Amino acid sequence: MTFAIARGEDHSILKLNDTKAVEAFVDSAEVVIIGFLEGEESHGYKELVAASKKVDSVPAAVCTEKELWAAYSVSSDTITLFRKADDQKKNLVLSELQKLDVDGLVNFIATNEIRYVTEYNQVTAVGLFNAEVRTHLVIFANRGSEENPQLKEKLATLAPEFTGKFLFVLINGALKSNFKAINYFGLTTKDLPRVGIYDGDSDMKWLLPEGEISTERVREFCQSFLRGDLKNVKQAGHEPKSEL
Prior knowledge:
Elements: E1 3-7, E2 12-16, H1 19-26, E3 31-36, H2 45-54, E4 60-63, E5 78-83, E6 88-93, H3 102-112, E7 117-119, H4 122-130, E8 135-141, H5 147-158, E9 167-172, H6 179-184, E10 194-199, E11 204-207, H7 215-227
Parallel strand pairs: 2-4, 3-4, 7-9, 8-9
Antiparallel strand pairs: 1-2, 3-5, 5-6, 8-10, 10-11
GO biological process, one term: response to endoplasmic reticulum stress
Protein name: Endoplasmic reticulum resident protein 27
Organism: Oryzias sinensis
């Protein structure tokens, strides 16, 4: 397994030179991005280096070994974002783009940076509602409250059990911009923390009954949806809408 640091005039980025290195890098974080590019002079190389400095929460690397690309369904210069939360890849095929700049690449990363627990905002909302997984386990909590870190950590350990079935979404009740989403479930900030399910396919939503938000209760809540048990349970909140 070979990792290297490629250095240019004013930049450096991890370089992946064999299959094991690529596999290890993809597995190293919840979200990573790899530039499958022919070399440092390729269009997109400098843009990826610059973007990775602006979005340092997402590890970035390049793979210039073309014989490794086929395993990732890449045939030409492509920047690929890998994420574990829904086991998906998002590709930017450079030959299909009219323009690629640093700001556009930063936006691509930020929009598609879906994690095991993704904080809801105007940017991540685009990626969440365009994801193939259409069902969201929604955690309403006030950032800054004592229970918020423990709750997020607890649900982050549960989320991998439901890869491909749910996206876990954290909605910060302390932000005025999120009041609409909270009210959509028939809640106010005084009711938080609470947990709900939003199903994008049926445009239906349910709340976990009040009580301790334990791993066991949330797991059973998710499984009850998957079994179809919630179809006969009264929906939460108000009339269905197309998005939160």
